[in-house]
Write a structure and sequence with these properties.
about 750 residues; Maltoporin, Chain A
């Protein structure tokens, strides 16, 4: 949770260099080291007890700290890979969703489309080889529900790499994502934006902050957004949503600060089930008696194989009370109470291009070929969370050691209920190359059957982190967390028109720890080593199973993760540029595997991901900003069956190499230019017995560009162009390989930003 603070003063506009040219952006990084003159100080040097003063190293790309009170040190002194994506970078890129913003982190993305007919919804994020969708947090509180999160109300995004079990309790083995909300501040400001772009995109945002009482520190902030858009090259698909987020603060200039936040999001979309993989590299006929299908042409990326009647309706509400109190210098209390509710009503027409579903009446005339679309997937689900989290930070000395101790107590109740539906209707087969989304749906009358799945998880958590400093060179950190949870699950199935209930309970106490040592060769550099653990118990994602082959069976122990990392960090150019390098290894144990001899299931499986990650964020030279990262991953199944369709011993949906870059430069006369590149290595899909589908997707490069012009002090115009080369690529693929989501083709948006 980020300290509640007054608004930082807007940075002075960079001094302009008339002789600078666009080619400057292509100079090596080392050129920035020869910067002739230091930049002027842009922050006050004398801190006020109730106001957080921005450090000199802050700029539009580089952050000084992560938002969580559990991370007490600057990023350069934090013994773990932590990337902070600031709102200024997000705005430059024209990113609108969390998934788009996370493109700034190499190897992180929505690579997996879903299981067979089921399509993933919301932010289905993979990180370092594993699904991280259930480890997304808002201001340190787990955000439940499969919603596509908009960035209109975000100050920054903290991406923590490695097991976060000690930080957050149960969760993904390879990291977490924390969204930091905008809050009321002690300054008057108003801004807004209007965007128009490809695929009939229309979007507007507003951000207004008003000081209501300066003496008592009362301020009100209102953020709102409305969007109505399609998707480039994807017919019928719609991304329509609106949201509002008021924030009211009290005592913001005093020792006790209280902020009341509320967020409401309403989405009314037409979901995208993708297009057939017919004609892609690696595709072969699913029917040995019809080998000619192997040579079939790819389908048009505009084709929509669903129905106009498909829908994805989401309503999300989040009410939050934040309290901070400064007892004394270095002694502070953080408390957050939240009630959140997300409901999703979803219907998607999917398909599987199997031999039975792909018909070819006339071999020589592909215009007669059809694809069955009898898979109607549905979700009628509600998620709720009620939590109270308290963290106490205390600084004290014991002899020569300076301690920063963070202790916390978290009480959380989470509930998910998903209802079974009937009356989903049926559609005729679609023409493979000319599908008709307006085809009549017969029998469409969705209603609940009485079947449902309900899960309730109660968690009580205690944790402590102690950062110990010995002089100016050494920092040691140790953390321990205990999570006692009880899960109560009810499954009511409809069998032969009879409702059959089944009840499961799961309970355990999870213990996770993290230790690190950090040495500072200089004031602005560090070398560190870290080890941490994480556990994922059965039912943690509200899914339980009585099947012996499922890790969600309550009879099994939690999946365990141990991660080690060594790395180095360096702040250059008066701490304006942050460089980082890390070597990491993550081992996930207790995977459920079947013994080939007795055919029984045991928790003998073991997976491993290891690699190197490099990063650079901040100011290369005056007026020149950069955010870049490279990740190489070597993953394998150490014990158990190989899980890729092609038989390679590598984790699925995990690119071996990935790269991301964004850079911008301020030219004279109010002109700013920028551009970026993204690279993803090929992805290996999972195996499920599908015939003829591609075992992997090809690697790809995508290039983007931006240019903006400051018309006057109140208005600037920004043009973003995406996928300059109009690269055709696979953004995500489903497990069977029958369907994929095409990457967005060349597209553009024009945004007018207003500030008062």
């Amino acid at each position: 949770m980020q300290p509640i603070k007054s608004r930082k003063h807007a940075a002075n506009k960079f001094q302009q260099h008339v002789s600078a040219a666009l080619a400057t952006m292509l100079l090596p990084i080392a050129a920035g080291a020869s910067e002739a003159a230091p930049a002027p100080d842009d922050a006050a040097s004398a801190p006020v007890s109730t106001v957080q003063v921005t450090g000199r190293q802050e700029n539009d790309f580089k952050a000084e700290r992560a938002s969580s009170p559990k991370y007490t040190e600057k990023l350069v002194d934090t013994a773990q890979s932590v990337q902070v994506i600031k709102k200024e970078l997000i705005e430059q890129q024209g990113a609108l969703t969390l998934t788009e913003a996370l493109r700034n982190t190499p190897g992180v993305g929505a690579f997996f489309l879903g299981e067979n007919g089921n399509t993933n919804t919301g932010d289905a994020i993979f990180m370092r080889g594993f699904d991280t969708s259930a480890s997304i947090f808002v201001d340190g509180v787990r955000d439940v529900g499969s919603v596509s999160r908009d960035v209109f109300n975000l100050e920054q995004i903290d991406v923590v790499k490695g097991p976060a079990g000690t930080d957050n309790g149960r969760g993904a083995p390879t990291g977490s994502v924390n969204l930091v909300s905008k809050k009321a501040e002690m300054s008057d400001a108003a801004s807004g934006s209007i965007t128009a772009g490809s695929a009939s995109q229309k979007r507007a945002t507003v951000d207004v902050n008003k000081v209501l009482n300066a003496e008592r520190g009362i301020a009100l902030r209102l953020n709102a957004m409305a969007q109505d858009a399609g998707r480039p090259a994807r017919a019928v698909v719609e991304d329509k949503r609106w949201a509002v987020a008021p924030s009211l603060g009290f005592g913001l200039n005093g020792p006790t600060r209280v902020v009341l936040d509320y967020l409401h999001v309403d989405q009314d979309n037409i979901p995208d089930g993708g297009v057939p993989t017919v004609g892609l590299p690696g595709y072969t006929s699913p029917d040995r008696t019809r080998p000619f299908i192997t040579d079939a042409a790819p389908v048009d990326l505009h084709n929509f194989y669903g129905s106009n009647s498909d829908y994805d309706k989401v309503k999300a509400d989040m009410a939050t009370v934040r309290v901070e109190h400064d007892f004394a210098p270095g002694f502070k209390l953080h408390n957050i109470t939240r009630y959140g509710r997300t409901s999703q009503d979803y219907l998607l027409t999917a398909f599987m291009g199997s031999a039975a579903n792909l018909l070819t009446p006339n071999q020589s005339d592909p215009s007669t070929w059809t694809l069955a679309r009898g898979t109607r997937t549905v979700k009628d689900q509600e998620n709720r969370i009620l939590t109270n989290q308290s963290a106490l930070t205390a600084q004290f000395d014991t002899g020569r050691a300076r301690h920063t101790l963070v202790t916390g107590l978290e009480l959380t109740n989470e509930r998910q209920i998903a209802y079974g539906l009937t009356g989903l209707g049926s559609l005729p087969a679609a023409n493979l190359y000319r599908p008709d989304p307006a085809a009549l749906v017969t029998g469409l009358a969705p209603s609940r059957t009485g079947a449902y799945n309900e899960g309730v998880i109660d968690t009580q958590s205690l944790y402590a982190f102690d950062t110990v400093k010995f002089g100016e060179r050494w920092l040691f950190n140790g953390g321990l967390r205990l999570d006692h949870f009880n899960g109560d699950y009810t499954v009511v199935a409809l069998t032969n028109n009879v409702l059959v209930p089944t009840h499961f309970t799961v309970g355990d106490t999870l213990v996770n720890g993290k230790v690190s040592a950090l040495f500072k060769p200089t004031t602005n550099s560090s070398i560190y080593a870290m080890a941490a653990s994480s556990k994922q118990p059965p039912g943690a994602s509200f899914t339980v199973s009585g099947n012996a082959n499922s890790a969600q069976n309550p009879i099994y122990d939690p999946q365990e993760t141990v991660s080690t990392e060594i790395g180095a960090k360096l702040d250059l150019f008066r701490q304006k540029l942050a460089l980082s390098a890390a070597l990491f290894r993550t081992v996930v144990k207790n995977e459920v595997e079947q013994d080939p001899v007795d055919l029984k299931y045991y928790q003998s499986g073991r997976k491993q991901v290891q690699g190197v990650e490099l990063g650079a964020t901040g100011e290369l030279a005056r007026n020149w900003l950069v955010s870049a990262g490279y990740l190489y991953m070597d993953s394998s199944v150490e014990a158990g069956k190989v899980i890729t369709a092609g038989g390679e011993n590598h984790l699925t949906y995990t690119p071996k190499s990935s790269f991301t870059l964004w850079t911008s430069y301020d030219l004279p006369f109010g002109v700013k230019i920028g551009g970026g590149a993204r690279y993803s290595d090929r992805l290996l899909r999972g195996t499920d017995g599908a015939i003829g589908t591609p075992a992997y997707t090809d690697s790809y490069w995508v290039f983007d560009a931006m240019a903006s012009y400051q018309v006057n002090r109140n208005l600037d115009i920004r043009l973003n162009v995406y996928n300059l080369g109009d690269e055709r690529y696979v953004a995500s693929i489903n497990k069977s390989g029958y369907r994929y989501t095409p990457g967005s083709p060349r597209a553009a948006s024009l945004t007018a930003n207003l500030r008062f």
